[in-house]
Amino acid sequence: MIEIQWLSHAAFKIKTNNKIIYIDPRYMKKNKEYIREYFEHPEKADILLFTHHHADHCYPSSFAKMQKNNTLKIGPIKCKECIGKDSTFIQAGETLELNDIMITVVEAYNIKRKRKGGGLYHPKGLGVGYILQ
Fold this sequence. Notes:
Layout: E1 2-8, E2 11-16, E3 19-23, H1 33-40, E4 47-49, H2 60-63, E5 72-75, H3 80-83, E6 88-89, E7 95-98, E8 101-108, E9 127-132
């Protein structure tokens, strides 16, 4: 069985095969009260996945309480400052096999959403997405 819970913005919790996986677990003050409560008392993570280094996706105080001693933190190298040097750094095209979970890393980028100056918020090569099997 797989349970997927949206936690706000880009944050998701996936529960499967007795594993807890979070993607971009970032609490934001504008979110509803029940989400704040969840981030105060979350289920502990086996795997934390980060798509890119922007603060609305990768913010240490948001995922600090989700970690246990053996939680795996995975993200692009630009996330190093946020998730720590003891993490696994990946890039698009890689596949990781963690116990019975296969994680394929894919490109993730915007083609339309631009900043006021004209540059893309998320250009190709900045972030990644994940396919979980």
